[in-house]
Amino acid sequence: MPSTYETSDQNIASLLFMHGCEAREINRENPRRVVFTFSSEDKDPSELAGEFESGKPVSIVLAQFCNAQRHIKALIHNNLPRYS
User: Fold this and answer.
1) Is 46 exposed, middle or buried (0-12, 13-18, 19+ CB in 10 A)?
2) 26 vs 9: CA distance, rounded Å
3) Residue 83 is assigned to a structural domain of this protein
4) Which one, of 12, 11, 35, lies nearest residue 24 by Cα?
5) What's the CA gap between 34 and 28, in Å, rounded?
6) Neighbours of 79 (CB within 10 A)
7) DSSP 81
8) Which of 13, 14, 34, 79 could form a disulfide with 68 if both were Cys (CB 3.0 to 4.6 A apart)?
């Protein structure tokens, strides 16, 4: 059963996307905030987000994170198809 995680934070969404979590749903009901629902079969998205939010140093490849940020922004602004 896949683990799911919901966030409106673009940085966390980028991190989850970068780690292979799939954006299952993009909720645009509130015009001021987009809420992503991520899921993953092999990684727990809430655990990945918790590591990021803990304030501890997290090792990432900057280029991958920047690409993930661009993709998340494109999903927000252009309604691109969801893929991981």
Assistant:
1) middle
2) 12
3) no
4) 35
5) 5
6) 10
7) P
8) 14
Tell me whether residue 8 is in a domain.
Answer: yes
- Which domain range does residue 31 map to? 3-78
Gyration radius of the chain over CA positions? 12
- The number of folded domains in the chain is 1
Other residues' Cβ atoms within 10 Å of the Cβ of residue 47: 12
pLDDT at 14 over 90: yes
Asked whether the beta carbons of 66 and 60 are under 8 A apart, the reply is no
Residue 84 belongs to a domain: no
**DSSP state string for 35-73:** EEEEEESSS-HHHHHHHHHT-S-----HHHHHHHHHHHH
